[in-house]
Amino acid sequence: MLLELSIENFLLIDKVKISFTNGFNVISGETGAGKSIIIDAINLTLGGKSNKNFVRIGKKRAIIEAVFDIDNREVKKLLDEYGIDSEDNILILTREIFGTGKSISRVNGRIVQLAFIQKISKLLIDIHGQHEHQSLLYSENHIDLLDLYGNKLIQDTAIKVKEKYNELKLYKSELKKYSSINEKERERRIDLIKFQINEIDSSNLKNNEDEELLKEYELLKNAENIFATISESYDKISSNYNDEYSVSSVLSNVLSKLEKISSFDEKLLNFYSEVQDIFYRLQDISTDMRHYLENISFDSERLNEIEMRLDTINNLKRKYGNTIEEILNYRNELIDELKEIEGSFDKTNVLSEKIKKCEEEYIELADKLTVIRKQVAKDFEEKILKELKDLNLEKAKFEVNIVANLDKKGKLIFSQKGNDKVEFLISTNPGEPLMPLSKVASGGEISRIMLALKIILAKVDNISTLIFDEIDTGISGKTANIVGEKMALIATNYQVISITHLPQIAVMADNHLLIEKVFYDDQTMTKVKTLTEEERIEEISRLIGGNNITDLTLQNAEEMIELANKIKEGFNKKVAKI
Predict the structure, then answer these.
(1) Using an 8 Å Cβ cutoff, are 350 and 170 in contact?
(2) Would you say the pTM of this structure is higher than 0.85?
């Protein structure tokens, strides 16, 4: 239930706080006073599209806040999923709109995405505005309304139909992919793939082979320089022990002298030992150098082989990948593609069989859904007719027409919703044939049909608040009395908020709000106030006779309110027959 609506710097509203009650809340006011602004504000808190023009001139931002008392399990479950607290069953939706056009949405103080607001708002309020009058005229919307009424009876089968349709759609998409390649293109692609696989396989590539070859290439390419350097180093270290200038000869002489004095001091002995280690280590290095020199190669033929091999590898890299690993991976992808293309004939046959089987399963489910819809439609028709009679359309006939959905060639159209084409037909006058709503229903009749739908669907939706934005369009007199009584009766089970200009509806209110346009300091503002009993009599009088309020209109207003109170007292508020 909507408890309170706070609006600040929104269009013509400077700052207002509106309190709503349980039961029937009526909003009235002169034309142009700003009644629609209240609905616009509520729509925005529920995730409606924002606009920078909503911000009051001269202000930086507009703030709208709606406070709800929630007892809906689905709402609480959603809040829990998002980790949002709902202490004492209170839910606060806040929308800030900035002068730039951007907006921020909050749920109980936490910033959330607009999609979440829109998701949760569907469980809070059902708003019926003038655009819904028009939507009812479009037959493509009727299947959704019937399914909504059918609820759990239809839901399970409808979900299966949708899943099977999506499966069928996937198979057809795959088949189209395989069928899109003609025979010549297929053979051309097979030849190219085989050539590429053969070119890669014939090279006998090995991982990291190029890196090892590059090392060997650099070694062979610089073999002469390496040999000369190592040979010269070897000679200077120890090629000739008799050469007094060789490193080994010098170290040998040093060792001989250190040995003679090493017994005089421990440090001298350490010197001798360390130099001796260096001498032996140097001898080992000298031996390694000699072995290296004995094995060094000047194989120019091998050098040419490596160059040719590296050219082959680089050529494959230019075509198939930056590394040998990428080339080999690409080769595996080619093999997979080749298998797929060569097996595409079999794949096409397999997919065709799957599509055939899937279509049979889809049709079976869709036929089952049709049977259920027709069963639900009978009950739906009875409920609608009952409501229409209560709304002064006693002679009306109403029928849900369900036929196969066919294309121009008479072929069945598959869709996520099944194979049905649903359309509401009505006859509002005796002797007239059943016709589509758009061809026979007047504005007032459409209003009453929509009200009947809302009454029936409200129970299914499990929504506690219904808002009607001037649903009284096109009605007056006795019909207006009936609509007012009906809305008051609905309000015994639901919170109802209605914007109206009819006194017959306004008198049934449990809480009457007045929208006024005032002028202050050369500015136009919209004010909202809850009417006292005396103020309410004046407002009803104005609705009866316009701005020309007389003793007679005041007396009429008072009598209408008294009669309305007696009618409401007669309602069974525990079990309302809606």
Answers:
(1) no
(2) no
